[in-house]
Amino acid sequence: ENGMVIRKSNVELSCEMATKLAEAFATQLPIGSKVIVSRHYDKSSRMLKRAFLGGLLANGVDAVDCSAIPLTIMRRTLSSHDEYIAGVHFHQKIDDPTASVIAFFNSEAFRISNDVAKKIEKSFFKDAFRRVDPYDMGQIYLLDCKSEFHQYKKEMETVLRFHKFKSHDCRIAVDMMHGAASGIFSEILNELGVDNIMFNAYFDEQRLGNMNALIKRTNEDMGAIIKALKLDAGFVLNAHEHRLDIICDNGILLSRQTALCVVLTLLNLESKVLGRKIKVFLPTWAADIFCFDELDIEQGRLANFKATEIKKYDLVATGEGHFTFTEFLTHHDSMYATLRILEMLVNHN
């Protein structure tokens, strides 16, 4: 469903099933194709990814192994390298630690279409897998993750007018929710000159196992510290680096619809400086009780879009904490969204 397989780890989604899924997926790809494969740091993801790699190789597809890498960086790598035909990422289900998620992406780093998903499903249930000769079997290539991290940081700093952070007294709190991007985002904030207090910026599989308790404690702790230290704002990044929650300077967590309204208000101010209307795409159910004169807002269903269609808009948002600022990437990235929102706050005091 929606380019993902979600099942109970080591029960419904076993190593055998992961290998069969890989064979069904690889059968749809040309022999010699390169697929980039990444995972979260939890044990289930590690186990399933290794089983999956065998299925790819058996069907003549090369695997580019990223090991543990943030999903947003894997997607950036996939979309920026023409030699990669697809990508696959493994992680825990955020609200159910007993379940694992296998997400499939096309060459533009979007979820695979329903047509491709149906072909994989048909091949899986019919055991209709391609069998290649030994000399056509795939190989595993190891990706230089440090190089990809560096490139990601470099591109982000190029897009942002980062000197403005250093010339203003930006003081924020950031909760990484034990995500895989904990190390890299703290480096980016420090290099950009953003004074920050980091929470939960380390790997901890056990704490991710009780997400509701973690979220409740995080919101209370962040709110109290932001208020006590008079910080400018707080940002909570979902463990898989996509969803973003915002806490304002009085320590109150904004609802996701309110957070969307705040971002649109900032963009409305930004458009006056740019001298043009900023184009925004929102889902049909997003609240439209406010009027933004300087924004060109379109509402619809975000499905099966291509990169060229996404780039027609300056912002694509879901109203559920997902923000895609297309000048950087064509998919959700809460790290860049945090800095982009902070930049607009600084620009407009």
Report on the structure:
By secondary structure, this protein is of the alpha/beta class. The protein is built from twelve helices and 14 strands. It has helices spanning 15-27, 43-58, 71-80, 114-126, 145-159, 163-167, 182-192, 205-208, 211-229, 256-274, 307-310, 334-347; strands at 4-8, 34-39, 62-68, 84-93, 96-105, 140-142, 171-175, 195-199, 233-237, 244-247, 278-283, 295-300, 315-317, 323-325. Strands 1-5-4-2-3-6 form a six-stranded mixed sheet, with helices on both faces. Helix 1 crosses helix 4 (114-126) and helix 10 (256-274) packs across helix 12. It is globular and about 65 Å long. The mean pLDDT is 90.
Summarize this, please?
Helix content is 41%, strand content 22%. The protein is built from twelve helices and 14 strands.
Question: How would you summarize the topology of this molecule?
Answer:
Elements: E1 4-8, H1 15-27, E2 34-39, H2 43-58, E3 62-68, H3 71-80, E4 84-93, E5 96-105, H4 114-126, E6 140-142, H5 145-159, H6 163-167, E7 171-175, H7 182-192, E8 195-199, H8 205-208, H9 211-229, E9 233-237, E10 244-247, H10 256-274, E11 278-283, E12 295-300, H11 307-310, E13 315-317, E14 323-325, H12 334-347
Parallel strand pairs: 2-3, 2-4, 3-6, 7-8, 7-9, 11-12, 11-13
Antiparallel strand pairs: 1-5, 4-5, 9-10, 13-14
Helix pairs in contact: 1-2, 1-4, 10-12
